[in-house]
Structure to design on (245 residues):
């Protein structure tokens, strides 16, 4: 497998596991996120793999940095086959608690970050008439729950943007995929500051009693979608823990 890809949100969780999966199989991967120390550690960890990992500190809310990231990836590896738009935040909260700063952040990272990723790489892919853009949506991009009005909104948006773009690109060889995980054990819930939301999630939704997936389970889905033959475009994947309703 000789794929060149770049992954946002590669400093932890699903992005990190996906980078590991691909480098192990011989792909060249650019790791992107804000925490440079974590990216550096991951690069070192992956240095014995069959592929190569390099990193670039990037904030997905900056259109400029996302453009520079795409240029860096193309310069490093000559071309980009795959963009995995995976960075995301999930500060769940009840609307009545008006966490406007957190709403802003979710829109900036989960929607605008995806759009900046697309804008930075799509011209390159159109020029080559080849490429694959994947975005991490969520089960929350298919169904809405209390505390998730804004988060779910951003994940619906990410999924719909991928679907709409896929339809526009139907005449090309460029593929688009939304990956929709259920509950995965990562650092994602660390951004929740609304205590009402935390109690609701633990007691009301029963998250505490579910067995979450591992990031590697989602990485496997990404790997599957990317490694289909060129005429197969896996547009949507939903991966839930078996005991998640
Ligand atoms: P993590 O918190 O482990 O990973 C989130 C990643 O996003 C980190 O690498 C973080 O890196 C990065 N990130 C956040 N903000 C920015 C930013 N402004 N610029 C660049 N990178 C940023 O959680 P997950 O691995 O779970 O999350 C990955 C994706 O999966 C998200 O889109 C999330 O919404 C989605 N998802 C997760 C589920 C779960 O249950 N865990 C379920 C469904 C979807 P850094 O802080 O270093 O910038």
């Amino acid at each position: 497998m000789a794929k060149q890809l770049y992954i946002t949100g590669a400093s932890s969780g699903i992005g990190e596991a996906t980078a590991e999966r691909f480098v192990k199989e011989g792909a060249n991967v650019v790791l992107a996120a804000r925490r440079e120390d974590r990216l550096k550690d991951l690069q070192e960890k992956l240095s014995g793999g069959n592929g190569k990992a390099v990193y670039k500190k990037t904030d997905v809310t900056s259109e400029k940095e996302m453009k520079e990231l795409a240029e860096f990836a193309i310069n490093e590896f000559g071309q980009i086959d795959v963009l995995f738009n995976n960075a995301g935040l999930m500060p769940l909260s009840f609307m009545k608690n008006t966490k406007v700063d957190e709403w802003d952040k979710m829109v900036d990272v989960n929607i605008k970050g995806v759009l900046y990723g697309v804008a930075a790489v799509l011209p390159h892919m159109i020029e080559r008439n080849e490429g694959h853009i994947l975005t991490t949506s969520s089960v929350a991009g298919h169904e809405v729950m209390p505390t998730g009005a804004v988060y779910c909104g951003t994940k619906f948006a990410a999924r719909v943007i991928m679907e709409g773009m896929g339809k526009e690109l139907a005449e090309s060889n460029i593929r688009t995929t939304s990956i929709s995980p259920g509950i995965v054990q990562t650092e994602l819930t660390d951004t929740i500051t609304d205590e009402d939301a935390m109690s609701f999630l633990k007691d009301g939704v029963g998250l505490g009693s579910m067995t979450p997936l591992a990031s590697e389970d989602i990485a496997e889905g990404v790997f599957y979608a990317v490694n289909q033959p060129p005429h197969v475009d896996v547009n949507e994947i939903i991966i839930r823990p078996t005991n998640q309703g």
Notes: The CA atoms of residues 10 and 67 lie 17 Å apart.
